[in-house]
Amino acid sequence: MSTNLTDEIRSVEAAAAQKVADAKAEAQDLVIRTRNSAALRVKEAKQAHFREYRSRLAQVEAEAAENAARTVEQGKTEARQFVESHEDAVKKTAQWLAEEVVSQYGRCSR
Predict the structure, then answer these.
(1) Structural domain contains residue 14
(2) What gap in Å lies between CA 14 and CA 10, rounded to an integer?
(3) What are the pLDDT digits (tens) for 95-105?
(4) Could you tell me if residue 38 is inside a domain?
(5) End-to-end CA distance of the chain
(6) Does the residue 85 lie in any domain?
(7) What angle do CA 44, 45, 48 make, to 5 degrees?
(8) Which residues of 69-103 are buried (b: 16+ CB within 10 A; e: fewer)?
(9) Number of domains in the chain
(10) Is residue 57 one of the residues assigned to a domain?
(11) CA-based Rg of the chain, rounded to a whole angstrom?
(12) The whole model's pTM is what?
């Protein structure tokens, strides 16, 4: 009878050891799946944020280009207005300067 009891204890111990091994393997598999899932979520979040960054950067660059074009156009307009407003004064000054040079040094005889 002791042989049967010993065999029964051994078989129960073996079954228990197998259940423990199966539980450890299942727990390890669960940990691996959880880590993979977390890594995937991190990767997706990084990709989403990078896409948002690129989109925002493109938007800011477009706004900057519009502002630059507007500033350049405004500068051209102001320069044209300045030239037009001082055109008569420049012509008068050039005429006066030419007259002064001619009166001081005479005409060029080339």
Answers:
(1) yes
(2) 6
(3) 999 888 888 88
(4) yes
(5) 143
(6) no
(7) 85
(8) eeeeeeeeeeeeeeeeeeeeeeeeeeeeeeeeeee
(9) 1
(10) yes
(11) 45
(12) 0.54
